[in-house]
Every structure is written in C-alpha cells, then in structure tokens.
Design brief:
The chain is an alpha/beta fold. The chain is built from ten helices and 20 strands. Strands 1-2-3-13-4-14-18-16-17 form a nine-stranded mixed sheet, sandwiched between helices. A six-stranded antiparallel sheet has the order 8-7-10-5-6-9, with helices on both faces. It has a three-stranded antiparallel sheet with strand order 11-12-20, with helices on one face.
Length: 432
Amino acid sequence: MKKTHNKLSRDLRDFLDLSPTPFHATEQLSKMLMSGGYEKLHEEKEWILKKGGRYFVVRNDSSLIAFVMGHSDPLKYGLRIAGAHTDSPCLMIKPNPDITKNGYLQLGVEVYGGALLNPWFDRDLSIAGRIIFQKSSGELKAKLIDFKRAVAIIPSLAIHLDRDANKNRSVNAQTDIPPILMRTKNKQNFRQLLEKNFLSMGEKVLDYELSFYDFQKASNIGINGEFLVSARLDNLLSCYVAAKAISAADGEHNCVLVCSDHEEIGSVSSSGSDGPFLESILERMVGNDLVRDRVMRRSLFISCDSAHAMHPNYKSMHDDRHQPIINEGPVIKVNAKQRYATNSITSSIFKKICSDASIPLQTFVSRSDIGCGSTIGPIVSARLGIPTLDVGIPQLAMHSCRETAGVRDPNFLEKGLIKFFDYQEPLAITNR
C-alpha cells in the first residue's frame, strides 16, 4: 500500500503543478486518457461507437467527458458515472486590467468563486490561461499560456501601518488585491506584454481568460510525509483520481467520467454541470430520451468533490459525531436540504462496494447552525433524475490557494471508484 500511495502522490503532484487553470487541467487529462487508449471525439462530427471502445470529448477546452462503451446491457446494469470539476477559486484578470500608479504596474482582478483571500497575500504568483489571438494572415487562433515563473505579488500592509491587522483584518476585493507586476514610469499595456512573451511578430491578442495562481509547487509535508499540500486540490485531486480509475476499469460496464468547469460559480454554462454537455453525450451513448430515462433508473452517479476534514484548532466548528480525519478514508457527504445529493440507497450501495474491498469510509454532516456548501451532485441528479452519491477526500483550508489533504486518501478513493466501475451486480436496491 505504501509504495502504491507514494507513486500516486508523486504523479498527482506532477498533475497539479501542470494544471494551473481548468484549460491546462483538461489538456493534461486528455493526454492521460490518450496514453491509456482513449480516442478523442468531436461533438460537431458523426460518431461510430463500438463495444469495448474508449472515448473522450472536450468542450470549451475546460470540460471533459470520457466514457467506456461496455459489453453489458445498460438497461440492466445502467451507467456508472463519476463526476468532478476542473475549476478552483482564483483571481481572474479583468479585460482592461492595467493600473499604473505611484510607479507600479498592477492588474485589476475579479475574484472567481468563494476564495479565501488572505492566503493570496505575500505569495509568489504566476499567470496562466487561454488567449485568443489573430495571426498576421487574419486567422483566429486559441492558445494556452503559462508564464511558468513568479511574475507578481500582493504585498501585505506592514503591521506598523495597521496595528489591528491581527485582530480584525478585512480584505476589499476591489482595492486591496490588485497584484504588482513591475516598477514603471510609463503606462503599460498588458496585452502587449502577452504578445511580447507568447506571440510572434504581427500577431495580436484579441481576448483572454487568464488568472493568477500560486507558483509554489505541490509537496508532501509532515514529519512522516503524510500530508499532500497544493493549490487546487479542490477539485483537481478528484479529477485525476477519477480519470485514473476509469482508465483502470475492466470495460465490462458502460462507464462515464465527467470533469466540468464552472462549479465554483454555480455550474450554469455550456461546459458546466448545469448545462447540456453531459446529457448530449449520454444521448449519443444510449439513444433516445425514452431509452436514456430507463437507463438512468439503473445508473448511479458519484459526485467526487472535496470534504471538510476536522480542523484541530477549530473542533467546535464541526458536528461532534461527524468529524472526518485526513488519511482515514473517503467521506460520504450528507445534507438534509439536498446540498449534497446522497440518500440512504446510494450511500448503502457505495458502502457495500467499499466494504467488500476493505476501503474505509467516513461521513460528514455540517453543524445544524452552519450553512453547507454544495457540489455538482444535486445539479446532475436533478437534471438527469439519476440516483446520486456525494463523496470526497477530506482536506483542510478548502478554497485557500494552498490546501491540505492526505497522501493515503487518493489511493482509497481510486480503489473505491475502480470497484464501482467494475461492480458485477446491478446498482439497485429492490423493495421486499
């Protein structure tokens, strides 16, 4: 087990370092799938799907769906679907970002998602994302870019100028967090900087979707190296583990992996889980609406997203009977208001699968006086009418630019998802 989780942890760290944005994460997942024998399809073309075939589709360069055309009858065994999301809270660069004042060039940013802002101060920041540019011939092209070095910082205000900083520090997203890029006496143009660094002579940046990211590499920490620390663990960890799992599936059943963008802002987009992407792929897999609806009744969707580990310094913020511990196994997430889509049937099926494979499980429920986050689980469940389970790896500092998880838990989740994809029985519980 130790060698297994150590290798997975190393590979996962490499994936995280190469995936500073959803675009880069999707690119890395695509390479991973193609190396595992998956064929890339294009939505605008006709598909000829074969039994035993492994395929994937990319939309908007930021969302991906992979699927296996299994040999079993989907009307009996359903679809085994795992889902995660490619986006993470970050600082998105505004369209006209240039702020030149007091001899500094800064860039205006917009907070994407529910980010913890304080951890972004005093960190080495880089820039990555997608640019759209016009070639000298007039042709429009898209390109993924990454400075791959620290280019900016958001300096804190010195304690001498803010004596109450440690007592009551608030952050204004408009005025306090524009990062500093350089000293300058003249006005600068960010698009020209992009052209200088990433384009050839005569090419022009027309638009972009770029964000700052923490340049510090993912690492294992702790005296025994038992913690995994990185940006974007929520939720690239789940994307990577689920992709590994579907690649390892034996191919008997019809399996699907969906890694969608825009979860952190509600999933309402053409490439988000509250859009038509997954539905359109499933229709191409199993046929018309009537057949698809029948298949959904036999299917199970596992929404894989991060779970809150018990914080030792803030134990009172957790329910006394539901305090997940890092490296003690994946967490089934439950909420009475359906912020998580887990129910007794879906949790029991997964408990049975994991029990048969000796995979430990934990349970998370929020305190009754604290609001609960959500996932793509309730969204997909509502759109497709598919039984759904919410599960995740426990972590600390969720939505910080530096999050903490365990090195053993990704292996537990991967093993559980492989068993789920390969489970020999129908995914249903019948009434007596």
